[in-house]
Each structure stands twice: as structure tokens, then as C-alpha cells.
């Protein structure tokens, strides 16, 4: 398994990885949106599920691990969602985040939020941007929707 981010490096030793989990690819109609349970200043704001990569861990392996820990599911990983410059996304506290478009390996699986999230919502794409997102995630989510609903990916 490779990171699928050839030529992209993170200056942070523990970058963040996240999954833009769509109901289907190609031609998605909904995105899985997760509202934070903590810290208090982010409680109730939405994010893409994921977490921090462990020291020396491949980013894709970290994504698989984090999603299994947070959501108890496996993913089919498509392609990365990068900034217009082809880099990882700047987020909170000087960190960077790598994001991949994904679907559930088992689309019939029921998901329940873990300790990190208050709720998980399958949200129609035309309503996703109406949710209260963590500000740093807003352009990332918009880019993921644009990339995977345009028909150019996959």
C-alpha cells in the first residue's frame, strides 16, 4: 500500500489523515459528515472522520486504522483530495491533513459514532455545505465534493 501522495511530504511528524466517505463512487449523492464531541470549542461542528498518523506510519495505513478505530468499518480508498497546489491541507494548530475520497467497503454497514463524534449524518451533497463545519475543513469538503461529483475522478 502506498501513500498515493507521490512527491507530497508533510513537515509535521504527526500529520492528520481523513476520509471523505461518499455513498458511492463514481456519481456520489451523499457524504458522511461527523460532528465532533470534543474539544469543547469544536463540539457540534462537523468534520471528515480521521485522525493523527502514528510515528513512521504510512498515511494510507493510518487512515485505515483511524477509520476502523473511530467508525468500526473498512473503506475502499479512491484518490487523494489535494489543495490546488497539489499539497496537503493546512488545518488547526499548524498541522496538515491528507484527505482521500472513499466509500464503505460494505455499503450496507450501519455506522454508529464513537467517542470522537456526537453524530454521523449521511448528507445529500447539495446540503453538505449548509452544516456547521470546522472552519479549516470547509474548503476541503468543498474540494472533495467538486472532485468526486464532477465525473473527472475514478
List the SSEs and their pairings:
Layout: E1 16-21, E2 30-36, E3 46-47, E4 50-52, H1 59-71, E5 75-81, E6 89-90, E7 96-104, E8 117-124, H2 125-128, H3 138-149
The biggest sheet amounts to: 5 strands, mixed
Radius of gyration, rounded?
14 Å
What is the CATH T-level topology?
Nucleoside Triphosphate Pyrophosphohydrolase
Oligomer: single chain
Q: Count every beta strand, where a strand is a DSSP E run of 2 or more residues.
A: 8
What sequence of helices (H) and strands (E) makes up the elements? Answer: EEEEHEEEEHH
CATH superfamily: Nucleoside Triphosphate Pyrophosphohydrolase
**Through-space gap between termini:** 18 Å
Overall tally of structural domains: 1
Beta-sheet strand percentage? 25-35%
What would CATH call the architecture? Alpha-Beta Complex
The tally of helices reads 3
Shape: globular
Q: What is the SS-derived class?
A: alpha+beta
In helices, the fraction of residues equals 10-25%
